[in-house]
UniProtKB/TrEMBL annotation:
Name used for this protein in its record: Putative Mannosyltransferase
One Pfam family here: Mannosyl_trans3
Similarity-based family: Belongs to the MNN1/MNT family.
Bilayer topology: Single-pass membrane protein; Single-pass type II membrane protein
Coiled-coil regions, chain positions: none
Amino acid sequence: MYGSVLVSLLTKQHQRLQNQPNSVRQRSLQGIGQSDIQLLRVNTNDDDSTPSNATESTIVSNSSWRYSIEERLPEFGDEDPSSVAVKARDMAESLANSLSNTSAMEAQLRADAELHARSVKILPAGETRKRALKCIGWRQTGHKSPNGPREPENDLTCTDLVSNKASGYCEVEDINSGERFRVMRRSSNILRNRVPFRCINAPAFAQYHIQAHAAVKSTLDPNDASRDLPPQDGIVMVVYPKLIPSAYATIRALRVILGCSLPIEIWYRPDEMEHVPNALVPLRHLANNSSGARISFHPITDPAAKRFVTKIYAINHSFFDRVLFLDADNVPVRDPSFLFNSPEFLETGAIFWPDFWHPTSTMFGLHSRSLLWELLDMPFVDMFEQESGQLVVDRRRHAAPLKLVLFYATHEPNFFAHYKLAWGDKDLFRLAWLKLNAPFHMVETPPAMAGMVTNSSAFCGMTMVQHDPEGDVLFLHRNKSSNMTTNFQSWWIKPLAMYHTDIRHVMLLDVDDVIMKDPAVLRDLDGYMKTGTTFFYDRVAHKKRFLNGNDHGRYYLRRLLREFDYARFNVSRGFAPSQHVLNSFAYKGKSCHEMDSSMVLIDKERAGNTVMKIMFWFITEERFRFKYSWGDKETFWLAFELAHVAYTYSPWGVSVVNSMPNEDMKRHPDALCGSILQFVPIDNSETEVLYVNGKALIDPYPQGVAYIRKAKQNNLFNMLPTHMTPRQYRREVNTTAHQKEKFNIECLPGMGSTLLPASFSHNLLRRRLHFLGVATDVIGSLQHCETYEEA
């Protein structure tokens, strides 16, 4: 039996190959490396005259399997060990010959793949002839480069998902000529996190620039007949309900403060205004009562012109010949009319402004190895990215690039969005102009930030500063609302901190957590090792609020999972709830709470950008539409669930410590009412308390003495807590034994009680003394880690 495992492995390899389609990769044998073959050869070179050596030390190795003759002897019954060793070596020698043949086969397959690769060409640059292409498959290469040596054993079919770590190209065939081409050539790790990549899109990807060329060629300048007339200059803006106040402020500044008399077009989508029917009234009132040229309103009804595409649509359909586009929250500090007569504009007919980002330091993947350059059939351009909050364009001179921008924004499939090759519209103008070699002037002065100093060492930038071609400040673009900061207080700072921090392994802790065990150990537990997360449960509370609330006639959680805009965040699977959420009390309508966020562990790198973006959506948009959570709590796990990224909850339900004013141990020892307690999230027989979220244990009235009367009935302060709810799996509370009593949300009736660990009182006293020191500005207590010397 010396070589039995390898024989079995080899047989399974051949069986798998026979069942697979006939391709280079699928004809190869996987998993049997050259090092394994050499090990086997060494181990079969034992001298027949010394069989005892084989029984003591001979080992057959294949990857992680190692079997010694001595360990396998019982399987031969009473046979002589020397005879067993001889038989084993015979089997191993036979296997070595088979593996040697397999190695030769692999070498031949690689040689064939390399030879074939030489005949697979790159599509000619600048080609405008449409081809009939079909996908052949993914061709993997080594050295993390599409030009590296072929690795046919890792080739994939057109519909297989290609790992972001892989390098190679998609092979396509011209149906008419039989020529083969390399498309979507990519190095390893060039795509942004969690971007799905399959070669099935390769034919359309290859034809994209040809379709773009046709779209531009067939498009006429809408103002072509008026070329000989004096140009009509004006400002174009796009608004939606939330931007109305910003637009009002910008237009009023232009008219009243800066004396700008340029006519203004305001474009909007009527369907966005339906829920706020009077949204445009302030702007119409301003238009009727302001001096200067006309302010006009223009609806956008094209179903393709949504979100950032409305900007591109408005510029393309404007009645002005020369357009200054302004984002509604972009305020000039001087009358910008002079831009139409600036030397830079008169020479080129277009002025663009730079963003903060450059290919060497980009948030949006616009680097030299991006698939973007192949998609657009143009060489990499090493320059700053574009910020499109303002731009000046002569539409008569640049009809073609404007139409190309519209094609980039509206063509389906939208490769820019699918592969995250650009962010919205911000770089589409620059790229279209570059593609057509159309002239433009990029302002040379880099953008700056304007904001406030919050303390002696912290600057908070709220506004992007852009300059005119001479380098003087011209625009203040309020990228962040000045009012938004007031919405990020208390709980909401936590997910905001999670989103912005550069720390990879983040542990969010409430400042009132009384820690009983070093929480760093959680990162070594199975849950965190597998998913990069550790979450804890909250109480089961059967109330029609939050996750269990009524959102247009349905439970919020169920409606969210089904109607969430997965496409907006490039989540390809759509509605696909995890088993965890399907089994949750919240999904079944039995609890309005699911997660307690007093301790949250997330590996941001493993979580990925999609999770962070969905989290940001929750805290900047969704919570203002529907109160889905008590504070921030549900934000974290919901972001993972909607992104279809695995996450881990503690196996244990929430516990609490007893409250002295409620007389828990005297009146209802099976129903404690107090601060949340969480256990170390290991499913074993040893119960360890991890922490207590104990604000109410540290300060009797954390909201101030003005609330004493209101808080007295439900005062959770306890001078010396003695008991806790026993560790148990999450379950509903049981009020059967207390049907006449009214319990508050902090109580866990029917779940029992057990003694707290003896060390808890010591830790609690230390925290109380530290709190007292901070509250009274007597900081001496903070200089001591231990409160008393141990006896």
